[in-house]
User: Fold these one by one.
Assistant:
Number 1:
Amino acid sequence: MNGFGKLTLVETRLFLREKIALLGVFALPVGLVVGFGQIPDFAHAQKSLNGQSGTEYIAALGIAVVLISIGLQGIPMVIAQYRERGILRRLGVTPVRPLTVLIAKLAVWAGAAVVSAAFVVAVTRLAFGVPTPVDVGWFLVSFVLGMAALFSLGMLVSAVAPTSRSAMAIAMGLFFPNMFLAGIYFPTDGMSPSLQRIGQFSPLGAAFHAIRDSWRGVDPRLEWLGIMAAWAALATMLAVRYFRWEKA
Amino acid sequence: MTAVIEVSGLTKRYAGHAVVDGISFGVEHGEIFGILGPNGAGKTTAVECLEGLRQRDHGKVQVLGLDPRTARHQLHQRIGVQLQDTQLPDKLRVGEALDMYASFYPHPADWREVLDRWGLTSKVKAPFAKLSGGQKQRLFIALALVGNPEVVFLDELTAGLDPGARRATWDLIKQVRSSGVTVVLVSHFMDEVEELCDRVAILEQGRIVALNTPAGLVDQAGGKYRMRFRPTAPLDELSLLLLPGVTDVARSGTQVTVTGSGDFASAVTAELARRQVIVADLRIEGRSLDNAYVTLTGRGMEI
């Protein structure tokens, strides 16, 4: 096996050894669906959710939570640690470029997000009879763009934070407003129009709206896709610009 | 003998201050070359310029005929490096680390053999975080060697090792050399450099203040011998001071210390015999690299 293959394999194993992270990535989203799915009325269309069924809404929310928990918890912390502990520096004197390890790690995280999202879709369908996303194409586009936006935001945090501690602090400072504005804590459908508007510009907000709409067969608004693409492009550009391979 | 490393006028500045200030040296194939100096002398920075980890500001550097600045990737396939202050992921296992690093190189060694040679076979499944300081250090050396390098750079080889493990490590490094690998050793331990190195450059404030074999450095510094003993009868110290080669006689309690050069020790013992003074606890201390180092750099080692 070549260096990249080996690295990806090893990074996958390391990921699977972090039990608490696994709970956040795999158990929490499905747990949300299973938990809220017990509410009697949730199988039916909810007026407060703009006509979407509660379970379908929560399933879309679970997927958004997967994206942000990897993007703004896993990525900044782990990458900043890799720099802080000299792991990136050590790889810099091997024939494998340190960029390769970042790509391997992102590949593992992307894989985890896909598996977790598929798990949410499957459980929602099999246990609660909610149909799988109607508009598969738009659903996948929304998911991939949301992942790009949140993962690159995480990379940007790891790029600018001098230590893993500060990476965590900055990431948390982005995590909670994103969760709130996206309507993870309570639905944006009940928020004031101006707050709703602001929320749609947040990377998680745009991702959640797009995933939610494509699930029930409404084409996601192009502006949401554009907002996610813009966040991804901007954060990637800045992350590339400011990324340091060794601690100051 | 062919030069494996050629450095001339290597300079590296940080914020206008030259941390490495125009150093030049060559390393021959199959030699263990030491870079010795106090903390902050620029040893690590200099070596990192050779490894391609840092970009030099001035000077020429060739390692295995390659410029680390432009041929970084080709160079990294042929060198092995052990850095100071690096860690591995906590949950990465010893065997996985070696297996993975081996996969990076075009012609790696059998990683299980390397593991065995460095006494880590029983730790193959142990996660990095559970290793002792000495085991971590041995793992880092093993990682530097697993790619079958032609040149290996070791920065503070025996940091964190106990005396027994240090000796064992030295023996293994000698084996590495006898297999034809060139070794560059950064150290601030005199005994280590004296034991292992064929030649040593002493670096201070970014400059080479001396470059020689360990024995050559001692000669160059012109160190003196010291003789200590306890006379069992009263002794006229002045008579010793008049002997050829003796430069100093000092008494501390019952112990007399005579310092001198050349064949002064025979003169002293002959004089003592002539006066029928019997001595106890006679010790002669040779000139050491320690003393030479202090003489050559004009200061002691900060540890």
Note: The longest helix of chain B spans residues 163-178.
Number 2:
Amino acid sequence: MASNPYFSLVVLFLAALGFGLAPLGMAWLWARVFSPAKPNPIKNAIYECGLVSKGDAWVQFRSAYYLYAIIFLIFDVEAVFLLPFAVAFTGLGVAACVSMLIFVLMLIEGLAWAWAKGVLTWA
Amino acid sequence: MAVDQQLKIELGKQGVFVTTIEELYNWGRKNSVWPMQFGLACCAIEMIATTMARYDLARFGAEVFRPSPRQADLMIISGTVTKKMAPQVVRLYNQMAEPRYVIAMGACAISGGPFKQGYNVLKGIDRYIPVDVHIPGCPPRPEALIQAFMTLQKKIDGQPLTGEKRPRHLNPEAQGEFPVPEQGAHDLEPTSNSGVWPIPVIIR
């Protein structure tokens, strides 16, 4: 196993992981075992620059943002499908290219709908 | 148990490094004291100058001034504390996570300073919260703030982990919550925290 070309990389990777996790682990251990917990209501209160915070921080979600979420989702999924297609492009036949083209055209039709609806211009 | 100093030096010459958990813990803590961004008045300008290029405070470990008290170790009270601001100062001190330290910078934070006769001036922040280092000056020069920082580092270095003199954060009975004063009709109520600031007795 030591002659494997990737062996030294694995060792270095584990060392890097340990270098990051060891201080965190030690701090967690210290906090759990040795340091006494001293919570009190003011310490756990919400931070508002020294003032007492009134009311809830949960404001109503603006539903007008749903369009951006939908468009992002569609194009993200499209990108996920296009990436393996691009990798395997040279080994595919005509049928695969045509079906991919139809897929892309369906998504372009969605984009055209959003454009016509006026979502893509500010305000 | 700690190793004798001479033995340590001899071993060090041979290339053997001996230490204790207490030393390592305090070394880690004292070299990474992160202050909180808390400037009140003119001393804050000197504090800002101390963090800038000429008198760089970052080389002592005060790398970043955290905006949130939850992430800070040190609160530098720089400037006059008015009675309107005092409850907020105490509340912020309470919101800092332990271990936490306070440096009272300048005459106003120590005792009211040149504005002591003002109707709205709190005569020293150590009426409400325990202060570790006081720096006299109006304003103290950046070198004085660095000296205070080094004094604080020496203080942290000398704190044992167990026993009587252990720091507040390792002592479950030590006071963790300092009561926040309220704005009364003429003055803050209570006027001082008797656990922190013993009211001086006038002997005639």
Note: Residues 63-117 of chain A form one domain.
